[in-house]
Amino acid sequence: MGSDPAEVAKMVTVGDGFYVRQAVDNIAWIDLGEYAVVVDALEQPELEEEILDAIRSTLGDKPVRYLLNTHTHGDHTALNAAFQRRGTEIVNQRTSPIDSEGRWFEGARRRVLMLPLGGSHTSEDCVVWVPEDKALFAGDIFGWGLIPVGNLRLTNAKLVNDIYARMIEFDASVVIPGHGPLCTTGELRRWVEYFAWLREQIAKGCAEGKSDRKIRRMLPPPEDMKTWWRFELWKHEDSVGKVIRAVRSGQLNG
Length: 254
Ligand SMILES: [Zn+2]
Known about the structure:
Blueprint: E1 10-15, E2 18-22, E3 27-31, E4 36-39, H1 48-59, E5 64-68, H2 80-85, E6 89-91, E7 103-106, E8 111-116, E9 126-130, E10 135-139, H3 154-169, E11 174-177, H4 185-207, H5 212-218, H6 231-248
Parallel strand pairs: 4-5, 5-6, 10-11
Antiparallel strand pairs: 1-2, 2-3, 3-4, 7-8, 8-9, 9-10
C-alpha cells in the first residue's frame, strides 16, 4: 500500500494560469484574462490565508471576480465568506440559479462554462468546463468509486447514467473531482462500467438466494480499480452495500 495521495496538499498546474490545490477537498483558481475565477471553497475556513497567498503567488493581484460552487455542501463552501468580503461574487444554484443551458464566464484568455447537472449527489450539482484546457470539474458526482446518490432507486440510477454520459461527452483530458486526485475521462467511463457490473452481479446473486456475505465475497474490488483513491479501503464496500440494499428492497427492479 502506498501513502494516501490526498493527505498532503499538492499544487497541480492544469494549464498556464490554471491551478488546482489537490487534497482531500479540492480548490482551483483560473486566470480568465482580466479576472480570475475560483472553483469550490473547501471545508476549513482556517485555510483562508494559505489559499489567498497561493492565489497571489501564482496570479499576482488579479481580482477573483467569481467563486463557483459545484454544490453547497459545507466541504465546498467554507471560504465563500472570505472571498465575498473581498468583493468576489459567489455563484451556485442557490445564490444565482443557472438554467439548463449553463452560464459562461468569459475573459480575453479563456472562458469557462458552469453547467447544471443536478439530481445525483445533490439537486443543485453543477460541473465546470474549461474548453481551452479540456478540463472538467465534476464536483462530487465522481467520487473515485462512490455511487453519488444516497438512496439508490431505478429512477436515480438511470439519471446517474445520463449525467455520466453528459460528462463523458466533454471528452475532458483532465477531470477534477471535488475530493482527492485528479483523473481523466477514462475513469468516468470505467465507473459507468463498474456501476453496471455491480447492479448486474448483485441482482443475479440476490435472485439466486445468496446471502449478503456471499455476494460480497463474490465481488472483490476489480483489479484495475484497486489503485483508485480510498477505493479498496472503503468505497467499494460502500457501493456494494448500497446496491445490495436497493436490490433487496425492490427499488432497482424494472
Ligand atoms: Zn457534497
